[in-house]
Amino acid sequence: MRSAPPFGVLDRMLLRELARLFLATLSGVVLLYLVIDFADHAGSYGGRGWGKAVAQLYLNKTAVVTYQLAPAALILAAALLVAQLSRRGELVALFGIGVRPARLALPVAVFAALAGGALFLLHEGVVVRADEQVDQITLRRFHTWNDWGNYLIGASWVRGREGRIFHLGPRGDDGAFAPATVLEIGAPFRLVRRIDARRLEPSGPSSWRLVDAVETFYLPPDGGSPRMEEKRSALLLAPFPDTPLTQRDIDR
Predict the structure, then answer these.
(1) Which of 41, 46, 107, 202 sits at a 20 to 30 Å CA gap from 136?
(2) Which of 71-85, 100-114, 151-165, 208-222 has the least mean pLDDT?
């Protein structure tokens, strides 16, 4: 008895069922991950306009998590497809008319190839930028670490003067660092002030410009409770004694 022709009714049926199972499985695992992640980190979300920042964070996380979980969802969908055909008795019927197991793998392989191409385009067009946005929002807006290994690529830690520590992103041709974090340490090794900025630009001798800066002041405890104050500035001029030449010498 002849087997079913390729890309016929059987293949369309299997592709349709596999696509439905894949989308349902992927949507379920991504939603479950995001809900658990939000519940785990909800305590660190706060401050003015935190809702918009969280929406941006999880919009980018959705793209990243979808890319990461899609291969596992495809494997689960293929297993569910076989289980579904077996439960309905369709698998036995297909074997009975001469359809071999290898023949059933053809539409699965085609779907996997199409999904792989779509994931490649998603990664190059969306996920790379989204992953960077996730790291920046979690660190600069909520002051928590996400994938710290990715965030530190191209960055450097520099010890400055007067108890300052600089966490500097890649340096551009104009001498600016993007992004940048400045930690001011007081006695006895206590964090006094933290500045997170989108860019740190030299502004003459012993002066720097911090673009889109967020200053966090860590005040002495009042009644046993720690206190923090936050101040935002579109442009902050800081009289740091560290010069671009000093930074370059330290980096080397």
Answers:
(1) 202
(2) 151-165
